[in-house]
Amino acid sequence: MNQTMPNILIVDDEERFRITLGKRLKEAGFPVETVGGGQEALDHLTQHAVDVVILDIKMPGLNGIEVLAEIRRRHIGAEVLLLTGHAEVASAVDGMRLGAHDYLMKPYEFQGLQAKIHDAYKVKLNREERLRKAEARAQLDKLEKSIRF
Hints:
One of its GO terms (cellular component) is cytosol. Helices cover 55% and strands 15% of the residues. By secondary structure, the protein is an alpha/beta fold. The protein has a single domain (8-148), classed as Rossmann fold, CATH 3.40.50.2300. The chain has a five-stranded parallel β-sheet with strand order 2-1-3-4-5, sandwiched between helices. It is elongated.
């Protein structure tokens, strides 16, 4: 499996936080894009390949849980790290049920965030590898059936 740096999308309505985190992740070698809201995130995901989404929960318009639900429906390949400054057990439970990779509280230690990003990316790569193997098996089964008949 070829491990490269994951493409990251930061979704947060707090501009200063979003810009600062994006800058720090870029300095650490990650390709990063940032958007300020949920609908912008969904629009971005429609046009760009993203490996890991760092998604704020409390945002005007579409909140992070709503955005996560749409990501799971439309962009199953992207792993999502929920990030919030508000400790809400209910939103953490909802996020994990919807398939978030993890739920993190602001402020989160930067080294730990990088480790969570890499963990989420490994999950994505492993899932893609399993899908490739399943597709190859299905093609082989189809070929074997056509040879028999």
